[in-house]
């Protein structure tokens, strides 16, 4: 090892020439993963540090359809220093305009005088929230977000209505400290006082609202013990508990998932970089043929030469990883103001060792995987063969030990990705997709070379010298086809997959759903309001369909007597409250996939029909018993039927459908969907709101637009990851072009000698580059479309439709990228003098 280290040290005296592409590829891949990981940890730290502010208290107890009972309130007062009561629901803000009432959907929060316990509400103009919501001259105040005020044409001092209550807009809401805890909302926020809501008619029995009690707790209180105590006392009352340890679980889960996904996209970038690493090492070793041959002639053993170059590459790997870690750590800090401006929650940006260590580990394993193969070749090739091979080492398989070690390293890298990402299934699928893409691209590169060789001899290209030269070069020995198709193709594959997924999601939201989705969801229709509502919409000739259903909400607390969280803790059906309904008549027979529906006059023990797909996911079968807490009352029902529920058409769908006798006497409202022509929507809304101000209308086009906006953010994030992968691929492409420059110099010299003009030689080089880029793009479209199809069908549970526009852009972009890279390294070969080049070869 001492001799190997001495050789490595002397070799490195020549500088980094030949390793710049190596360093760039490794640094870019590590930097992307380190930056994503650092941003994710920064958000997690921000959530942890500001958990109480995000939640609005050290802990929160919430209930659906009701306020806390005396016993629940007494427990809070016994354990908390301060209690703040709020209520949250959807409603319509109404303004009397010049052309009649104008309405806008809003998420209303009624607050008490103690709100907020933590943080500060920021208003414009800057006044205290208690003053903004106070009652002046019999009219309570209210504040709302700018987007809603603009939509309704309101300015501070103007009047608006919620239900039957008039409010005066006193200020615009700029910062709601606990706004992120509420998760996704269909409308902008309006804040009013609980006293102001008392006479609005919006909090009637059966109306859908959530009451929340934020608790300021003594210092050093054990939140885990307090949660267990609360749930043991009130588990069966429909209580939901949250505390500052995870103030915004939905956001935290989203950040973890999107962060892990982007790390996996970053691994695809590292795979592209690994190809560049392998190509750079091959090119470097090709230039060291004489040195290696001389060392072997002087008695150096193969393992000594292997160790010498392994040490060199090891030191350069450490340098590349350090550069990548520096970029990955500094970039989030430098861009933190821009990132924070896009986040609804605080982020604590800083230097965090965990994501940097993860990125370094990924980079080290990738470098090992892609350097062993070319290094192994130097160990097994003899000196005489090296002297004979003027163009590079012999192409041969390394010893089995190196193949086994490569497989072991790939397995370790995939296993670490599965473990560290937190979503092992997605990590394994991603790894399989990357390996499959590399295999497909490798086979495609061989196919391109074979096809080019055959076409170069075809009769059709005779007389077209530039084209024939280009095809012969792509198919001949020393071709750049493999490195170009692999490096650029994998980057384009990731970009193609992201583009196809994004376009399919947008198509599903913007084109498919509006054709079949209802115009409006109407909620909170009281029992005595339902006949008039149905009379209005059913007698409208522009209304094609109206569906209604009783609407309650409940929490599944037990399954077969066991707490539901112990049976299927992570399933979405058990996270929060779910819609519950009943039917007065049996549904169509084709909707019941298992079991039997009860008679219309059934009066026995409670029965329930469960959504078939969700029941299978949880593990429920016919005869199982589930306990649902509705309005603080436990209802235990036996599963008598499994029902097919289609949520894809945006209509009414319930996981739980109970027998009518199980819900007898429970206060409830109705939900309705109205399918109407767009021209009739505004008048329907005006008529319904005028007759029943408490009814809330949710316009589906607006709701779908908010979903589309949310998906745009996800698509942008994944596109950035794909762009980083593509940038790495372009660097590898430049490396391949640079590595082939010496061969093109000799080729140009020979062509000039036999009479070829510079223009014809340049055209040949350009055609060669364009062919390889187009080939990489076409293969990338195929691989990306397969990946996008798998994601849409198996992950998104949606249909897939090939989108040709982005596909065309991929092919054109690939061809253009290789063309530019090829032309950039064509100037020196064109300028070289044939005599000087040919004499040097002698």
UniProtKB/TrEMBL annotation:
Q: Does the UniProt entry include the keyword Cell membrane?
A: yes
Q: What would be one Gene Ontology cellular-component term for the protein?
A: plasma membrane
Membrane-spanning ranges: 21-39, 258-285, 306-339, 359-376, 397-420, 426-448, 770-795, 807-831
Where the record annotates domain ABC3 transporter permease C-terminal, the positions are: 265-377, 723-829
UniProtKB keywords:
Cell membrane, Membrane, Transmembrane, Transmembrane helix
Please indicate which superkingdom the organism of origin belongs to: Bacteria
Q: Where found in the cell? A: Cell membrane
Question: What is the recorded membrane topology of this protein?
Answer: Multi-pass membrane protein
Protein's recorded name:
FtsX-like permease family protein
């Amino acid at each position: 090892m001492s001799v190997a280290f001495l050789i490595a040290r002397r070799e490195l005296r020549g500088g980094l020439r030949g390793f710049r592409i190596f360093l760039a590829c490794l640094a870019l891949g590590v930097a992307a993963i380190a930056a994503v990981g650092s941003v994710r940890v920064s958000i997690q730290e921000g959530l942890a540090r500001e958990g109480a502010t995000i939640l609005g208290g050290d802990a929160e107890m919430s209930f659906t359809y009701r306020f806390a009972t005396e016993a629940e309130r007494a427990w809070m007062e016994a354990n908390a220093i301060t209690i703040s009561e709020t209520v949250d629901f959807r409603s319509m803000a109404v303004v009397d305009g010049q052309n009649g009432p104008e309405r806008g959907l809003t998420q209303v929060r009624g607050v008490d005088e103690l709100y907020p316990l933590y943080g500060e509400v920021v208003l414009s103009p800057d006044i205290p929230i208690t003053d903004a919501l106070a009652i002046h001259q019999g009219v309570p105040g209210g504040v709302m977000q700018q987007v809603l005020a603009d939509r309704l044409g309101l300015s501070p001092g103007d009047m608006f209505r919620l239900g039957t209550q008039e409010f005066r807009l006193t200020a615009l809401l700029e910062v709601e400290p606990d706004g992120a805890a509420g998760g996704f909302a269909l409308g902008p926020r309006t804040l009013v006082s609980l006293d102001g809501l008392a006479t609005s008619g919006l909090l009637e029995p059966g109306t859908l609202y959530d009451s929340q009690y934020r608790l300021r707790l003594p210092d050093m209180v054990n939140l885990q013990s307090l949660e267990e105590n609360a749930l043991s006392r009130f588990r069966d009352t429909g209580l939901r508990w949250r505390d500052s340890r995870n103030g915004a679980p939905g956001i935290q889960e989203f950040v973890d998932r999107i962060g892990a996904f982007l790390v996996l996209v970053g691994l695809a970038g590292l795979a592209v970089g690994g190809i560049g690493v392998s190509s750079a090492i091959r090119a470097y070793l090709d230039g060291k043929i004489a040195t290696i041959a001389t060392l072997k002639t002087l008695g150096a053993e193969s393992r000594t030469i292997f160790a010498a170059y392994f040490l060199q590459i090891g030191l350069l790997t450490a340098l590349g990883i350090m550069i990548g870690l520096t970029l990955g750590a500094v970039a989030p800090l430098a861009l933190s103001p821009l990132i924070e401006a896009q986040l609804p929650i605080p982020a604590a940006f800083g230097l965090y060792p965990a994501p940097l260590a993860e990125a370094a580990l990924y980079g080290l394993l990738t470098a090992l995987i892609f350097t062993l193969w070319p290094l192994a070749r130097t160990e097994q090739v003899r000196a005489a063969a090296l002297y004979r091979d003027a163009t590079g080492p012999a192409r041969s398989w390394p010893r089995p030990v190196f193949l086994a070690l490569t497989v072991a390293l790939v397995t370790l890298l995939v296993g670490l990705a599965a473990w560290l990402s937190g979503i092992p299934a997605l990590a394994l699928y991603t790894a399989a997709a990357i390996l499959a893409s590399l295999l497909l691209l490798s086979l495609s590169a061989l196919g391109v070379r074979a096809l080019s060789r055959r076409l170069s001899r075809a009769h059709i290209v005779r007389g077209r010298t530039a084209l024939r030269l280009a095809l012969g070069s792509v198919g001949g020995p020393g071709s750049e086809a493999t490195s170009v198709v692999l490096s650029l193709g994998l980057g384009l594959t990731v970009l193609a997959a992201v583009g196809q997924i994004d376009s399919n999601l947008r198509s599903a939201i913007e084109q498919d759903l509006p054709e079949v989705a209802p115009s409006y969801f109407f909620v909170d229709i009281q029992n005595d309001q339902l006949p008039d509502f149905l009379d209005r919409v059913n007698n409208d000739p522009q209304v094609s369909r109206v569906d209604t259903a009783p609407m309650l909400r409940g929490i599944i607390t037990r399954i077969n007597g066991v707490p539901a969280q112990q049976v299927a803790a992570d399933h979405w059906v058990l996270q929060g409250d779910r819609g519950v309904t009943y039917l007065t008549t049996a549904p169509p027979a084709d909707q019941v996939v298992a079991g039997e529906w009860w008679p219309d006059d059934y009066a026995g023990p409670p029965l329930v029909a469960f959504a078939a797909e969700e029941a299978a996911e949880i593990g429920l079968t016919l005869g199982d018993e589930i306990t649902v807490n509705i309005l603080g009352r436990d209802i235990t029902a036996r599963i008598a039927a499994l029902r097919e529920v289609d949520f894809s058409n945006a209509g009414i769908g319930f996981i739980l459908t109970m027998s009518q006798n199980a819900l007898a006497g429970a206060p409830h409202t109705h939900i309705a969907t109205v399918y109407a022509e767009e021209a009739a929507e505004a008048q329907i809304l005006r008529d319904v709101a005028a007759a029943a101000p408490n009814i809330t209308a949710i316009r589906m086009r607006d709701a779908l637009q908010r979903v589309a906006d949310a998906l745009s953010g996800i698509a942008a994030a994944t596109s950035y990851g794909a762009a980083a992968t593509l940038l790495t691929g372009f660097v590898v492409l430049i490396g391949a072009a640079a590595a082939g420059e010496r061969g093109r110099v000799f080729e140009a010299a020979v062509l000039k000698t036999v009479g070829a003009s510079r223009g014809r030689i340049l055209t040949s080089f350009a055609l060669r580059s364009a062919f390889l880029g187009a080939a990489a793009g076409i293969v990338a479209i195929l691989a990306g479309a397969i990946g996008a199809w798998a994601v849409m069908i198996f992950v998104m549970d949606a249909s897939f439709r090939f989108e040709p526009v982005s596909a065309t852009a991929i092919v054109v972009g690939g061809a253009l990228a290789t063309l530019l890279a090829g032309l950039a390294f064509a100037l020196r070969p064109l300028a070289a003098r044939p005599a000087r080049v040919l004499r040097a070869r002698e």
